[in-house]
Amino acid sequence: MSRIEVEHLVKDFGGRAAVNDVSFSVERGALCVLLGPSGCGKSTTLRLIAGLEEPTAGRIVIDGRDITHLPSKDRRIAMVFQSYALFPHLTVAQNIVFGLEVRGVARAERDARLGKVAALVGLSEYLTRKPGQLSGGQRQRVALARAIVSEQPVCLMDEPLSNLDAKLRQEMRVEIRALQQRLGMTMIYVTHDQVEAMTMADQVILMKDGAIEQAGSPVDLYQAPATVFAARFVGAPPMNLIAAAGPEPSVVTGVRAEDMRLAPPTGNGADAEVTSIEYLGADTIVGLRRSDDGDAILVRVPGRASARIGERAALAWDPAHEHRFDRASGRRLS
Ligand code: ATP
Protein backbone atom coordinates (compact mmCIF):
# COMPACT_ATOMS: atom_id res chain seq x y z
CA MET A 1 0.00 0.00 0.00
CA SER A 2 1.19 3.47 -0.81
CA ARG A 3 0.42 7.04 0.06
CA ILE A 4 0.25 9.45 -2.86
CA GLU A 5 0.94 13.17 -2.62
CA VAL A 6 0.38 15.59 -5.48
CA GLU A 7 1.81 19.04 -4.85
CA HIS A 8 1.08 22.18 -6.89
CA LEU A 9 0.85 20.23 -10.12
CA VAL A 10 0.69 22.31 -13.33
CA LYS A 11 0.46 21.15 -16.95
CA ASP A 12 0.44 23.67 -19.77
CA PHE A 13 -0.48 22.69 -23.31
CA GLY A 14 0.56 25.50 -25.65
CA GLY A 15 0.12 28.24 -23.04
CA ARG A 16 -3.17 26.89 -21.68
CA ALA A 17 -3.15 25.23 -18.29
CA ALA A 18 -5.02 21.90 -18.46
CA VAL A 19 -4.01 21.36 -14.82
CA ASN A 20 -3.53 24.48 -12.78
CA ASP A 21 -1.95 24.20 -9.31
CA VAL A 22 -3.58 20.96 -8.18
CA SER A 23 -2.64 19.57 -4.74
CA PHE A 24 -4.14 16.60 -2.90
CA SER A 25 -3.08 13.46 -1.09
CA VAL A 26 -4.48 9.93 -1.05
CA GLU A 27 -4.11 7.77 2.04
CA ARG A 28 -2.77 4.22 1.84
CA GLY A 29 -5.41 1.75 0.72
CA ALA A 30 -7.92 4.49 -0.14
CA LEU A 31 -9.91 4.92 -3.33
CA CYS A 32 -9.79 8.51 -4.57
CA VAL A 33 -12.08 9.58 -7.42
CA LEU A 34 -11.14 12.49 -9.69
CA LEU A 35 -14.55 13.77 -10.77
CA GLY A 36 -15.55 16.54 -13.14
CA PRO A 37 -17.03 17.46 -16.51
CA SER A 38 -15.30 16.79 -19.82
CA GLY A 39 -12.13 18.85 -20.23
CA CYS A 40 -11.67 19.74 -16.55
CA GLY A 41 -8.19 18.17 -16.44
CA LYS A 42 -8.82 14.91 -14.59
CA SER A 43 -7.27 12.62 -17.24
CA THR A 44 -4.26 14.88 -17.56
CA THR A 45 -3.79 14.77 -13.77
CA LEU A 46 -3.91 10.95 -13.89
CA ARG A 47 -1.48 10.81 -16.82
CA LEU A 48 0.95 13.04 -14.93
CA ILE A 49 0.84 10.66 -11.96
CA ALA A 50 1.32 7.69 -14.31
CA GLY A 51 4.31 9.37 -15.94
CA LEU A 52 2.67 9.53 -19.38
CA GLU A 53 2.97 13.33 -19.35
CA GLU A 54 5.74 15.53 -18.02
CA PRO A 55 4.47 18.24 -15.62
CA THR A 56 5.19 21.92 -16.26
CA ALA A 57 5.58 22.40 -12.49
CA GLY A 58 4.84 20.63 -9.23
CA ARG A 59 5.76 17.35 -7.54
CA ILE A 60 4.39 13.82 -7.26
CA VAL A 61 5.49 11.85 -4.20
CA ILE A 62 4.68 8.21 -3.50
CA ASP A 63 5.58 6.86 -0.05
CA GLY A 64 7.93 9.76 0.53
CA ARG A 65 9.77 9.16 -2.77
CA ASP A 66 9.72 11.96 -5.34
CA ILE A 67 8.74 10.23 -8.62
CA THR A 68 8.02 13.40 -10.62
CA HIS A 69 10.76 12.74 -13.16
CA LEU A 70 10.95 8.96 -12.94
CA PRO A 71 10.13 7.01 -16.15
CA SER A 72 6.64 5.57 -16.13
CA LYS A 73 7.85 1.94 -15.95
CA ASP A 74 9.80 2.61 -12.73
CA ARG A 75 6.89 4.14 -10.81
CA ARG A 76 5.32 0.85 -9.58
CA ILE A 77 1.93 1.92 -10.86
CA ALA A 78 -0.69 -0.18 -12.69
CA MET A 79 -3.09 1.54 -15.05
CA VAL A 80 -6.45 0.65 -16.60
CA PHE A 81 -7.56 2.71 -19.59
CA GLN A 82 -11.03 3.41 -20.95
CA SER A 83 -10.09 1.57 -24.16
CA TYR A 84 -8.71 -1.43 -22.14
CA ALA A 85 -5.70 -1.48 -24.53
CA LEU A 86 -5.81 -5.27 -25.02
CA PHE A 87 -3.73 -7.05 -27.68
CA PRO A 88 -6.26 -8.55 -30.12
CA HIS A 89 -3.94 -11.36 -31.32
CA LEU A 90 -3.10 -12.59 -27.80
CA THR A 91 -5.31 -14.82 -25.66
CA VAL A 92 -6.86 -13.63 -22.42
CA ALA A 93 -4.14 -15.43 -20.46
CA GLN A 94 -1.36 -13.90 -22.57
CA ASN A 95 -2.90 -10.45 -22.24
CA ILE A 96 -3.09 -10.76 -18.47
CA VAL A 97 0.53 -11.85 -17.97
CA PHE A 98 2.04 -9.75 -20.76
CA GLY A 99 3.51 -7.17 -18.36
CA LEU A 100 4.93 -9.90 -16.12
CA GLU A 101 6.71 -11.45 -19.09
CA VAL A 102 8.19 -8.10 -20.06
CA ARG A 103 9.45 -7.71 -16.49
CA GLY A 104 11.03 -11.16 -16.62
CA VAL A 105 8.86 -12.81 -13.98
CA ALA A 106 9.49 -16.60 -14.09
CA ARG A 107 6.96 -18.87 -15.79
CA ALA A 108 5.87 -20.75 -12.66
CA GLU A 109 5.26 -17.52 -10.79
CA ARG A 110 3.32 -16.08 -13.77
CA ASP A 111 1.09 -19.14 -13.96
CA ALA A 112 0.40 -19.08 -10.24
CA ARG A 113 -0.56 -15.40 -10.29
CA LEU A 114 -2.64 -15.83 -13.45
CA GLY A 115 -4.69 -18.63 -11.87
CA LYS A 116 -5.39 -16.59 -8.76
CA VAL A 117 -6.30 -13.36 -10.55
CA ALA A 118 -8.44 -15.08 -13.19
CA ALA A 119 -10.48 -16.70 -10.43
CA LEU A 120 -10.74 -13.37 -8.62
CA VAL A 121 -12.26 -11.55 -11.60
CA GLY A 122 -14.26 -14.54 -12.91
CA LEU A 123 -12.27 -15.22 -16.09
CA SER A 124 -10.98 -18.76 -15.41
CA GLU A 125 -13.12 -20.27 -18.19
CA TYR A 126 -12.09 -17.71 -20.80
CA LEU A 127 -8.30 -17.83 -20.65
CA THR A 128 -7.81 -19.32 -24.12
CA ARG A 129 -10.15 -16.90 -25.90
CA LYS A 130 -9.06 -13.82 -27.83
CA PRO A 131 -10.43 -10.38 -26.84
CA GLY A 132 -12.63 -10.35 -29.97
CA GLN A 133 -14.52 -13.37 -28.57
CA LEU A 134 -15.42 -11.61 -25.31
CA SER A 135 -18.24 -9.31 -24.23
CA GLY A 136 -17.47 -5.73 -23.22
CA GLY A 137 -17.70 -6.62 -19.54
CA GLN A 138 -15.33 -9.57 -19.96
CA ARG A 139 -12.80 -7.37 -21.79
CA GLN A 140 -13.04 -4.91 -18.97
CA ARG A 141 -12.26 -7.74 -16.54
CA VAL A 142 -9.16 -8.69 -18.57
CA ALA A 143 -7.90 -5.11 -18.28
CA LEU A 144 -8.63 -5.21 -14.56
CA ALA A 145 -6.90 -8.60 -14.16
CA ARG A 146 -3.82 -7.29 -15.95
CA ALA A 147 -3.62 -4.38 -13.51
CA ILE A 148 -4.14 -6.61 -10.45
CA VAL A 149 -1.68 -9.30 -11.54
CA SER A 150 1.13 -6.75 -11.66
CA GLU A 151 0.80 -6.44 -7.86
CA GLN A 152 1.76 -2.80 -7.97
CA PRO A 153 0.82 -0.87 -4.84
CA VAL A 154 -0.90 1.90 -6.80
CA CYS A 155 -3.59 1.47 -9.45
CA LEU A 156 -4.84 4.28 -11.70
CA MET A 157 -8.07 3.94 -13.68
CA ASP A 158 -9.29 6.29 -16.40
CA GLU A 159 -13.06 5.96 -17.03
CA PRO A 160 -12.77 2.14 -17.03
CA LEU A 161 -16.52 1.53 -17.20
CA SER A 162 -17.62 4.06 -19.81
CA ASN A 163 -17.98 1.48 -22.61
CA LEU A 164 -20.35 -0.73 -20.62
CA ASP A 165 -24.12 -0.63 -20.36
CA ALA A 166 -25.78 0.72 -17.23
CA LYS A 167 -26.38 -2.64 -15.54
CA LEU A 168 -22.86 -3.93 -16.12
CA ARG A 169 -21.42 -0.61 -14.96
CA GLN A 170 -23.28 -0.96 -11.71
CA GLU A 171 -21.99 -4.54 -11.21
CA MET A 172 -18.43 -3.65 -12.12
CA ARG A 173 -18.22 -0.65 -9.81
CA VAL A 174 -19.20 -2.88 -6.91
CA GLU A 175 -16.61 -5.46 -8.01
CA ILE A 176 -13.80 -2.96 -8.46
CA ARG A 177 -14.49 -1.41 -5.08
CA ALA A 178 -14.57 -4.84 -3.39
CA LEU A 179 -11.30 -5.89 -5.06
CA GLN A 180 -9.60 -2.62 -4.21
CA GLN A 181 -10.53 -3.06 -0.55
CA ARG A 182 -9.69 -6.74 -0.44
CA LEU A 183 -6.26 -6.25 -2.01
CA GLY A 184 -5.58 -3.02 -0.14
CA MET A 185 -4.70 -1.13 -3.34
CA THR A 186 -4.32 2.61 -3.30
CA MET A 187 -6.41 3.72 -6.25
CA ILE A 188 -7.08 6.90 -8.21
CA TYR A 189 -10.12 6.57 -10.41
CA VAL A 190 -11.15 9.13 -13.04
CA THR A 191 -14.80 9.56 -14.01
CA HIS A 192 -17.32 12.19 -15.05
CA ASP A 193 -20.08 10.05 -13.51
CA GLN A 194 -21.05 11.38 -10.10
CA VAL A 195 -22.80 8.10 -9.23
CA GLU A 196 -19.48 6.24 -9.58
CA ALA A 197 -17.83 8.85 -7.41
CA MET A 198 -20.51 8.69 -4.72
CA THR A 199 -20.70 4.91 -4.58
CA MET A 200 -17.01 3.98 -4.86
CA ALA A 201 -14.89 6.73 -3.33
CA ASP A 202 -13.38 7.21 0.08
CA GLN A 203 -12.41 10.64 -1.16
CA VAL A 204 -13.66 12.73 -4.09
CA ILE A 205 -11.62 15.45 -5.82
CA LEU A 206 -14.10 17.51 -7.82
CA MET A 207 -12.35 19.43 -10.61
CA LYS A 208 -13.41 22.33 -12.81
CA ASP A 209 -11.31 24.22 -15.37
CA GLY A 210 -8.05 22.54 -14.33
CA ALA A 211 -8.42 23.30 -10.60
CA ILE A 212 -9.92 21.60 -7.57
CA GLU A 213 -13.41 22.87 -6.83
CA GLN A 214 -13.90 20.74 -3.70
CA ALA A 215 -12.17 17.77 -2.05
CA GLY A 216 -13.83 15.60 0.56
CA SER A 217 -15.78 12.44 1.27
CA PRO A 218 -18.90 11.70 -0.80
CA VAL A 219 -20.97 12.70 2.25
CA ASP A 220 -19.10 16.04 2.55
CA LEU A 221 -19.75 16.85 -1.09
CA TYR A 222 -23.39 15.88 -0.90
CA GLN A 223 -24.27 17.44 2.43
CA ALA A 224 -22.09 20.54 2.28
CA PRO A 225 -21.22 21.43 -1.32
CA ALA A 226 -18.63 24.22 -1.25
CA THR A 227 -19.95 25.96 -4.37
CA VAL A 228 -23.00 26.17 -6.60
CA PHE A 229 -21.06 24.13 -9.17
CA ALA A 230 -20.46 21.31 -6.64
CA ALA A 231 -24.09 21.47 -5.53
CA ARG A 232 -25.31 20.99 -9.10
CA PHE A 233 -22.68 18.42 -10.17
CA VAL A 234 -23.03 15.99 -7.26
CA GLY A 235 -26.42 14.38 -6.68
CA ALA A 236 -29.21 13.53 -9.10
CA PRO A 237 -31.33 15.35 -9.91
CA PRO A 238 -29.13 18.46 -9.47
CA MET A 239 -29.88 20.65 -6.46
CA ASN A 240 -32.70 23.17 -7.03
CA LEU A 241 -31.63 26.80 -7.00
CA ILE A 242 -34.43 28.99 -5.76
CA ALA A 243 -34.87 32.49 -7.16
CA ALA A 244 -33.71 35.13 -4.67
CA ALA A 245 -36.26 35.95 -2.05
CA GLY A 246 -36.65 39.75 -2.03
CA PRO A 247 -34.58 40.68 1.06
CA GLU A 248 -31.35 38.89 0.10
CA PRO A 249 -30.63 39.38 -3.60
CA SER A 250 -26.94 38.52 -3.10
CA VAL A 251 -27.78 35.01 -1.89
CA VAL A 252 -28.64 31.91 -3.93
CA THR A 253 -30.58 29.32 -1.98
CA GLY A 254 -30.32 25.64 -2.88
CA VAL A 255 -32.67 22.85 -1.79
CA ARG A 256 -32.32 19.20 -2.87
CA ALA A 257 -35.28 17.51 -4.54
CA GLU A 258 -35.73 15.09 -1.62
CA ASP A 259 -35.85 17.98 0.86
CA MET A 260 -38.82 19.60 -0.91
CA ARG A 261 -42.49 18.80 -0.49
CA LEU A 262 -45.59 19.52 -2.51
CA ALA A 263 -48.29 21.32 -0.51
CA PRO A 264 -51.83 22.38 -1.43
CA PRO A 265 -51.82 25.59 -3.50
CA THR A 266 -52.12 28.77 -1.49
CA GLY A 267 -53.62 30.79 -4.31
CA ASN A 268 -50.88 33.41 -4.18
CA GLY A 269 -48.12 34.13 -6.70
CA ALA A 270 -45.71 31.68 -5.05
CA ASP A 271 -47.63 28.65 -6.33
CA ALA A 272 -46.08 26.58 -9.10
CA GLU A 273 -47.46 24.56 -11.98
CA VAL A 274 -46.60 20.89 -12.49
CA THR A 275 -44.81 20.59 -15.85
CA SER A 276 -43.23 17.13 -15.73
CA ILE A 277 -43.68 13.81 -13.93
CA GLU A 278 -40.96 11.17 -14.03
CA TYR A 279 -41.96 7.90 -12.36
CA LEU A 280 -38.87 5.93 -11.24
CA GLY A 281 -40.50 3.10 -9.28
CA ALA A 282 -39.38 3.77 -5.73
CA ASP A 283 -40.15 7.46 -6.17
CA THR A 284 -41.27 10.10 -8.63
CA ILE A 285 -39.53 13.30 -9.71
CA VAL A 286 -42.14 16.03 -10.15
CA GLY A 287 -41.03 19.14 -12.06
CA LEU A 288 -42.73 22.47 -11.41
CA ARG A 289 -42.37 25.99 -12.73
CA ARG A 290 -43.12 29.23 -11.00
CA SER A 291 -44.05 32.29 -12.99
CA ASP A 292 -41.11 34.30 -11.63
CA ASP A 293 -38.18 32.12 -12.66
CA GLY A 294 -37.08 30.04 -15.61
CA ASP A 295 -35.71 26.78 -14.25
CA ALA A 296 -38.00 23.91 -13.32
CA ILE A 297 -37.89 22.96 -9.64
CA LEU A 298 -37.70 19.23 -9.05
CA VAL A 299 -39.36 17.52 -6.09
CA ARG A 300 -38.74 13.88 -5.19
CA VAL A 301 -41.97 12.29 -4.00
CA PRO A 302 -41.86 8.78 -2.47
CA GLY A 303 -43.69 6.13 -4.48
CA ARG A 304 -46.04 7.17 -7.25
CA ALA A 305 -47.00 10.85 -7.10
CA SER A 306 -50.67 11.73 -7.45
CA ALA A 307 -49.80 15.08 -9.06
CA ARG A 308 -50.93 15.74 -12.64
CA ILE A 309 -49.44 17.94 -15.35
CA GLY A 310 -50.98 21.41 -15.28
CA GLU A 311 -52.02 21.15 -11.63
CA ARG A 312 -50.93 23.91 -9.25
CA ALA A 313 -49.11 23.27 -5.97
CA ALA A 314 -47.16 25.15 -3.34
CA LEU A 315 -43.51 24.26 -2.69
CA ALA A 316 -42.50 23.69 0.92
CA TRP A 317 -39.23 22.84 2.65
CA ASP A 318 -37.61 22.96 6.07
CA PRO A 319 -35.20 25.94 6.23
CA ALA A 320 -32.71 23.61 7.98
CA HIS A 321 -32.24 21.91 4.59
CA GLU A 322 -31.33 25.12 2.75
CA HIS A 323 -27.86 25.52 1.27
CA ARG A 324 -26.92 29.18 0.93
CA PHE A 325 -24.37 30.47 -1.61
CA ASP A 326 -22.99 33.89 -2.44
CA ARG A 327 -24.48 34.85 -5.81
CA ALA A 328 -21.35 36.62 -7.09
CA SER A 329 -18.69 34.06 -6.15
CA GLY A 330 -20.85 30.93 -6.00
CA ARG A 331 -19.22 30.00 -2.69
CA ARG A 332 -21.09 28.46 0.21
CA LEU A 333 -22.20 30.82 2.97
CA SER A 334 -23.73 28.40 5.48
P1 ATP B 1 -12.55 14.04 -20.53
O1 ATP B 1 -13.51 13.53 -19.50
O2 ATP B 1 -13.25 14.61 -21.73
O3 ATP B 1 -11.45 13.08 -20.86
P2 ATP B 1 -10.76 15.48 -18.76
O4 ATP B 1 -11.35 16.16 -17.59
O5 ATP B 1 -10.11 14.18 -18.52
O6 ATP B 1 -11.86 15.35 -19.89
P3 ATP B 1 -8.29 16.30 -19.92
O7 ATP B 1 -8.27 15.18 -20.91
O8 ATP B 1 -7.37 16.22 -18.78
O9 ATP B 1 -9.77 16.50 -19.39
O10 ATP B 1 -8.06 17.65 -20.72
C1 ATP B 1 -8.00 18.91 -20.07
C2 ATP B 1 -7.76 20.00 -21.10
O11 ATP B 1 -6.46 19.86 -21.67
C3 ATP B 1 -8.73 19.96 -22.25
O12 ATP B 1 -9.07 21.29 -22.60
C4 ATP B 1 -7.94 19.30 -23.36
O13 ATP B 1 -8.38 19.73 -24.60
C5 ATP B 1 -6.53 19.72 -23.06
N1 ATP B 1 -5.54 18.73 -23.48
C6 ATP B 1 -5.40 17.46 -23.01
N2 ATP B 1 -4.38 16.81 -23.59
C7 ATP B 1 -3.83 17.69 -24.47
C8 ATP B 1 -2.71 17.63 -25.39
N3 ATP B 1 -1.97 16.53 -25.51
N4 ATP B 1 -2.47 18.75 -26.11
C9 ATP B 1 -3.20 19.86 -25.99
N5 ATP B 1 -4.24 19.98 -25.15
C10 ATP B 1 -4.56 18.92 -24.40
Automatic annotation (TrEMBL):
Gene Ontology terms, MF aspect: ABC-type transporter activity; ATP binding; ATP hydrolysis activity
SUPFAM superfamilies (alphabetical): MOP-like, P-loop containing nucleoside triphosphate hydrolases
Keywords assigned: ATP-binding, Cell membrane, Membrane, Nucleotide-binding, Translocase, Transport
Gene Ontology cellular-component annotations: ATP-binding cassette (ABC) transporter complex, substrate-binding subunit-containing
Ranges of residues in domain ABC transporter: 4-234
Localization in the cell: Cell inner membrane
InterPro entries found in the cross-reference section: AAA+_ATPase (IPR003593), ABC_transporter-like_ATP-bd (IPR003439), ABC_transporter-like_CS (IPR017871), ABC_transpr_MalK/UgpC-like (IPR047641), Mo/tungstate-bd_C_term_dom (IPR008995), NA-bd_OB-fold (IPR012340), P-loop_NTPase (IPR027417), Transp-assoc_OB_typ2 (IPR013611)
Coiled coil segments of this chain: none
Domain of life: Bacteria
Family to which the UniProt record says this protein belongs: Belongs to the ABC transporter superfamily.
Name of the protein this chain belongs to: sn-glycerol 3-phosphate transport system ATP-binding protein
Protein's organism: Enhydrobacter aerosaccus
